[in-house]
Backbone:
């Protein structure tokens, strides 16, 4: 197993081109799929286009500039694949002109950036919570335990725990909004 890993490293100990592409693609595959699906609204076609997009990205990986956004680069390629798809399927009942497809792509990209900003803000805000509150949220949302079960295991009143979760949710909402405002300057 170790020898396989070493084969993927360059002489300087960095991941090879293959390994780097795989790592980056796997990190952003869901985002690319979401973009494609939002553009064409058909699961089967979106799966096919994701595969085609991955192939094109792999072929053009030498053109990717390290330090830039792999996701933005991938979405630009996916956008081209979506336009190509629509041009090849002009006989379908629904047709979109290129400006509408571009507008949809821009809107999807904006929404994905907003979702990423919210997710990052949530991560930051969760780190600011006390260990006790982090544990409460972990029990409820990661482990899926009911409020009643948590209250029972902690020896706390159920009603009091519901109030605690409501306060935590309110505090997280305010923290997330403030974090996003600080990082981007706007929040809608």
Residues:
């Amino acid at each position: 197993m170790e020898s396989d890993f070493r084969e993927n490293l360059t002489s300087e100990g960095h991941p090879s081109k293959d390994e780097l592409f795989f790592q980056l693609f796997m990190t952003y595959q869901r985002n690319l799929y979401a973009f494609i699906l939002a553009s064409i609204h058909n699961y089967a076609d979106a799966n096919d286009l994701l595969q085609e997009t991955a192939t094109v990205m792999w072929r053009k990986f030498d053109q990717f500039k390290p330090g830039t956004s792999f996701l933005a680069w991938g979405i630009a390629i996916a956008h081209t694949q979506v336009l190509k798809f629509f041009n090849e399927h002009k006989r379908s009942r629904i047709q979109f002109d290129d400006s509408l497809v571009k507008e949809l792509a821009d809107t999807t990209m904006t929404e994905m950036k907003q979702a990423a900003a919210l997710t990052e803000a949530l991560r930051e805000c969760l780190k600011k919570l006390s260990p006790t509150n982090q544990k409460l949220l972990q029990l409820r949302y990661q482990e899926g335990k009911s409020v009643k079960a948590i209250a029972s295991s902690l020896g706390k009143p159920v009603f009091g725990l519901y109030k605690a979760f409501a306060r935590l949710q309110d505090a997280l909402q305010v923290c997330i909004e403030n974090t996003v405002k600080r990082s981007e300057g706007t929040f809608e």
